[in-house]
C-alpha cells in the first residue's frame, strides 16, 4: 500500500520539468499548493481584466494630459514595471494598475478658473509620493498601518468587494444610472444579446465554482468574448453599429494589428514622443497662474499631500488584503510580509510616476481575479507583466475585448482623437467578472466578531463608507474615528493608546477635508 501511495508523488516529480523546478525555487508555488501552469494562467487571466481598466483611466487623464497616446504609454509603463516588481519582490499575485480614484481627484483639481496645469498637479503628486515613501519606510508606518483597528482591517476586503460589485453592475449595464435593474425592453437588439449573455454568465461562473473548475473567472470571461464575436458575426451581420456592419467591424478591428495606412489609433512611437517626462521639474513648480487666480500654494500642497498619501496608502493596503481574501490565503504569514513590501514598492513607483507624467498607480482590485483563479505567488504577477509589456506595443487586447464599437470608423484626425474614440468602449464583460470576483470577497464578513461593539461598529462604518462612496481612505477614517468613540464610552477605554489616538486624529482631519 505504501508503495502504491508513493507512485503519484513520483509521477509528479517526473512531470516537473527543469523550467518548473527552477521557477519553484524562486516563487515556491508548490509549497503554497499551486503549479506553474496555474500561476501563469491566473496571471494572464487577471491581466486581461486589468488592461480594460487602463483604457478607462486614459479617458480620465487623456484630455488633461493633452495626448491620449502619451497618457496610455506613461501609465502602461508603470503597470508593466510595477507588476513585474510586485511579483519578484513581494511574491504575491498582485498587479500594479492605474488608481482610478486618484486620477479622478487629479482631474477634479484642474480648471480654467484655478489656473492649475497638469504639470502643477504632477509636482504636487511628486512631493506627496516622496512624503508617502518616507512614511512607509519610517516608524510612522506603525501608526498608519499597524495601529488600524481590527474592525477596520477586516472591513477593507468586504467594503472593496461591495463597491466593485456595485460599480461593475453599473458599468456592465445590468444596473442603470439610477441604480435600478436594466430592463431588456429598453435595450437595442445587439445589447439585448450582450445583456442575456451576462445573465447566463453568472450561472456559468457559479457552476464552475461548484465544480471546482480551475480559473473560473477567466474561463467565464473567455466564453463571453467568444460568444460576443460569434453572435456579432453570425446573428447580427446586417445590424448597423455606427454606420458599420458586423463584418466591417471585424475587419477594422483586425486591421488595427496589420494596418499600414495610418489607421492605427495607437503606436508606441507616438506614445514615446508624447510623454511629458520631466515636465514637473521644468513647468510644474510654476504656480504663478494659480496664485494670480487667488489660490494658496501652501494650502494646495497640504491638501494634495494629505489626500494622495492616504488614498494611495490605503488603496494599496485594501486591495492587497482583498486579493488575499479572494485567494483564500489571508491567514498565511507570507501575505503579511508581501503586503509590507507592496506598500514600499507602491510608494516608490508613485515617485517615478509624475516624473514620467503618469497619473498615480496602486495595487489594483483586478489582482483578486488572478488570486480567485488559483494564483498564490509572484509568478502570476510576472506572467501578467508579460501581458503589460505586449500591451505597450499593440492594441490587440482592446481590439479583442471591447464589447461595443463606438469608435469604429473614426479614422480621421490625430492619434489622440482616434484613441479617444476607442476609450468609449465599455468592456462590459470585464466589469461583470469583477462583480463575480467582488462577491467572493464578501466571505470576509465571517471574520468580524459581532459580540464586540468596538469591532463590529467600526467594521460596519468602514464597510458602508467604502461601499457607497468608493473612497477607501475615507472608509478607514470613518472606521478609526468610530472605534475610538466606541472604546471611549465603554470599559475598553484603557485599550486606547497614543498610536490609536494619533491615527484617529489624522483620519478625522482627512474625513473633514474629504467631506468639505
Compact summary:
It contains 24 helices and 2 strands. The protein has 516 residues and is mainly α.
Annotation field: number of helices: 24
**Strand runs, count:** 2
Mean pLDDT: 83
Spans of at least 5 consecutive residues with low confidence: 1-14, 407-413
The helix/strand series, from N terminus to C terminus, equals: HHHHEHHHHHHHHHHHHEHHHHHHHH
Amount of helix? over 70%
Between the first and last Cα atoms, what is the distance in angstroms?
71 Å
Q: Measured on Cα atoms, how large is the radius of gyration? A: 24 Å
The spatial strand order of the largest sheet comes to 1-2
Query: Beta fraction of the residues?
Result: under 5%
Please describe what this structure looks like.
The chain is mostly helical. 70% of the residues lie in helices and 1% in strands. It has 24 helices and 2 strands. The chain has helices spanning 2-15, 18-27, 36-65, 68-90, 100-109, 118-137, 140-146, 150-171, 189-210, 216-234, 246-258, 268-274, 279-284, 288-292, 297-327, 333-356, 367-372, 378-391, 396-401, 415-423, 428-440, 453-469, 472-488, 498-515, and strands spanning 96-98, 361-363. Strands 1-2 form a two-stranded antiparallel sheet. Helix 8 packs parallel to helix 22 (453-469). The radius of gyration is 24 Å and the shape is globular. It starts with a helix and ends with a helix.
Amino acid at each position: 500500500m505504501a508503495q502504491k501511495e508513493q507512485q503519484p508523488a513520483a509521477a509528479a516529480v517526473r512531470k516537473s520539468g527543469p523550467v518548473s523546478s527552477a521557477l519553484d525555487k524562486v516563487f515556491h508555488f508548490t509549497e503554497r499548493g499551486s503549479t506553474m501552469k496555474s500561476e501563469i494562467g491566473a496571471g494572464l487571466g487577471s491581466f486581461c481584466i486589468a488592461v480594460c481598466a487602463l483604457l478607462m483611466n486614459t479617458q480620465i487623464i487623456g484630455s488633461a494630459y493633452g495626448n491620449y497616446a502619451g497618457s496610455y504609454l506613461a501609465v502602461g509603463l508603470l503597470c508593466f514595471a510595477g507588476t513585474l516588481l510586485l511579483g519578484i519582490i513581494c511574491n504575491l499575485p498582485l498587479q500594479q494598475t492605474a488608481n482610478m480614484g486618484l486620477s479622478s481627484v487629479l482631474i477634479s483639481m484642474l480648471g480654467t478658473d484655478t489656473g492649475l496645469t497638469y504639470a502643477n498637479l504632477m509636482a504636487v503628486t511628486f512631493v506627496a509620493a516622496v512624503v508617502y515613501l518616507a512614511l512607509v519606510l519610517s516608524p510612522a508606518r506603525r501608526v498608519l498601518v499597524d495601529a488600524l483597528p481590527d474592525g477596520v482591517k477586516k472591513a477593507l476586503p468586504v467594503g472593496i468587494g461591495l463597491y466593485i460589485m456595485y460599480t461593475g453592475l453599473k458599468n456592465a449595464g445590468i444596473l442603470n444610472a439610477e441604480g435600478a435593474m436594466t430592463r431588456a425592453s429598453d435595450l437595442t437588439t445587439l445589447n439585448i444579446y450582450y445583456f442575456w449573455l451576462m445573465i447566463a454568465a453568472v450561472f456559468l461562473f457559479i457552476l464552475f465554482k461548484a465544480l471546482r473548475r480551475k480559473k473560473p473567472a477567466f474561463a467565464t470571461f473567455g466564453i463571453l468574448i467568444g460568444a460576443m464575436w460569434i453572435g456579432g458575426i453570425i446573428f447580427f451581420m446586417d445590424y448597423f453599429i455606427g454606420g458599420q456592419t458586423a463584418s466591417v467591424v471585424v475587419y477594422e478591428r483586425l486591421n488595427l494589428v496589420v494596418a499600414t495606412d495610418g489607421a492605427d489609433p495607437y503606436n508606441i512611437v507616438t506614445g514615446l514622443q508624447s510623454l511629458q517626462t520631466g515636465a514637473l521639474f521644468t513647468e510644474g513648480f510654476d504656480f504663478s497662474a494659480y496664485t494670480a487666480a487667488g489660490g494658496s500654494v501652501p494650502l494646495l500642497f497640504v491638501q494634495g499631500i494629505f489626500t494622495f498619501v492616504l488614498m494611495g496608502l490605503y488603496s494599496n493596503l485594501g486591495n492587497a488584503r482583498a486579493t488575499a481574501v479572494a485567494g483564500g490565503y489571508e491567514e498565511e504569514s507570507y501575505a503579511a510580509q508581501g503586503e509590507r513590501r507592496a506598500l514600499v514598492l507602491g510608494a516608490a513607483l508613485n515617485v517615478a510616476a509624475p516624473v514620467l507624467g503618469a497619473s498615480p498607480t496602486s495595487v489594483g482590485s483586478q489582482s483578486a481575479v488572478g488570486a480567485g483563479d488559483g494564483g498564490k505567488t509572484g509568478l502570476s504577477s510576472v506572467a501578467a507583466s508579460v501581458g503589460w509589456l505586449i500591451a505597450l506595443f499593440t492594441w490587440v487586447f482592446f481590439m479583442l475585448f471591447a464589447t461595443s464599437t463606438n469608435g469604429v470608423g473614426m479614422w480621421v484626425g490625430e492619434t489622440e482623437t482616434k484613441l479617444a474614440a476607442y476609450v468609449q468602449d465599455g468592456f462590459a464583460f470585464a466589469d461583470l467578472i469583477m462583480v463575480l470576483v467582488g462577491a467572493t470577497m464578501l466571505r470576509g464578513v465571517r471574520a468580524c466578531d459581532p459580540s464586540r461593539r468596538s469591532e463590529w461598529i467600526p467594521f460596519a462604518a468602514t464597510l458602508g463608507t467604502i461601499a457607497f462612496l468608493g473612497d477607501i481612505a475615507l472608509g478607514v477614517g470613518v472606521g478609526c474615528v468610530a472605534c475610538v468613540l466606541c472604546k471611549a464610552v465603554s470599559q475598553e477605554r484603557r485599550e486606547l493608546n497614543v498610536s490609536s489616538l494619533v491615527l484617529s486624529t489624522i483620519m478625522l482631519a482627512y474625513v473633514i477635508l474629504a467631506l468639505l
